[in-house]
Design the sequence.
């Protein structure tokens, strides 16, 4: 965490203050409509540090959202959020619909435009990112089988990217952020689930393609896939679930995470090969209104995350218990 070659002490202190208010109002309109409106007013005061700029500014934002059920088989929703921060007016809005074309098939479509302002670590002088996102999906369900497929396309104007800043010895000091012209990300996701008596199986596959300024960046794996199998056993009011999950990941040049500035930079290594990506095993017990879960993650200590350096997710065992009272 040192930031200059002469640093020997890694402690960095900074003070920040945030206060404000949030107002939200929700009203049922007629029988099939719901309206939500609200606003936010905040003040931020953040001290500068070696990792971020200072900020003394207010934020004012207002939003509205409406959900309308046209019929039992068709629903529409839309919303908008208008905000002013750092003297910059930022509008965001979107709309979506979901339609059930038959007892077994349903369709959905979503479109939105939003913005991401630069963080204090990136530098407030940068331009905001402008995102345009579309999603569409179809689901089929029959008896014990369900299949879904969905796709998305995200177009980003002035995306913010970061690169490392090194000293004369090659050690990483911090990162430098700047805007590039454009970025496009396309994806396709499929999922299927089948159940037979006490056994169920689920499989998924995700396909990605990312380009920066119309040049393929290979930031995401071409595919990410997995399959899970689960067995359920019940005795009286108690139920036990046990299963395995196996994953695979395609070739990619994933980003490296830089904790100093909470940013991602292009990893300085060759693209990885397609590989097996680990096994998880789990068992869940429902005893009355108590749940006990044990999960053995990444049993074979395979590469688990897209990022190359941080964080690393090695083999580990997690135990959890949840218990509701006064039911």
Sequence:
């Amino acid at each position: 965490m040192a930031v200059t070659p002469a640093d020997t002490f890694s402690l960095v202190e900074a003070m920040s203050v945030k206060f404000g208010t949030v107002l939200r109002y929700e009203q049922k309109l007629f029988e099939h409509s719901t309206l939500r409106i609200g606003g936010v007013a905040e003040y931020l005061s953040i001290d500068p540090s070696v990792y971020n700029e200072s900020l003394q500014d207010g934020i004012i934002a207002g939003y509205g959202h409406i959900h309308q059920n046209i019929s039992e088989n068709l629903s529409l929703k839309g919303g908008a959020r208008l905000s002013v921060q750092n003297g910059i007016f930022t509008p965001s809005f979107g709309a979506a619909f979901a339609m059930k074309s038959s007892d077994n098939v349903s369709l959905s479509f979503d479109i939105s435009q939003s913005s991401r302002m630069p963080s204090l670590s990136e530098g407030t002088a940068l331009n905001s990112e402008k995102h345009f996102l579309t999603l569409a999906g179809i689901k089929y369900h029959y008896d014990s089988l369900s299949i879904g497929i969905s796709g998305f396309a995200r177009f980003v104007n002035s995306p913010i990217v970061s690169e490392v800043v090194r000293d004369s010895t090659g050690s990483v000091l911090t990162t430098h952020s700047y805007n590039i012209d454009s970025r496009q990300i396309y994806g396709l996701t499929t999922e299927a689930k089948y159940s037979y008596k006490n056994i169920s199986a689920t499989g998924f596959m995700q396909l990605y393609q990312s380009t920066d300024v119309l040049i393929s960046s290979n930031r995401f794996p071409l595919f990410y896939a997995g399959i899970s199998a689960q067995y359920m056993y019940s005795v009286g009011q108690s139920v036990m679930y046990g299963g395995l999950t196996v994953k695979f990941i395609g070739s990619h040049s994933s980003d490296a995470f830089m904790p100093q500035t909470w940013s991602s930079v292009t990893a300085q290594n060759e693209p990885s090969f397609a590989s097996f990506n680990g096994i998880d095993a789990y068992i869940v017990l429902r005893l009355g209104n108590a749940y006990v879960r044990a999960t053995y993650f990444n049993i074979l200590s395979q590469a688990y995350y897209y990022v190359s350096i941080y964080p690393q997710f090695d083999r580990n065992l997690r135990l959890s218990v949840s218990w509701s009272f006064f039911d």
Summary: The longest strand covers residues 55-71.
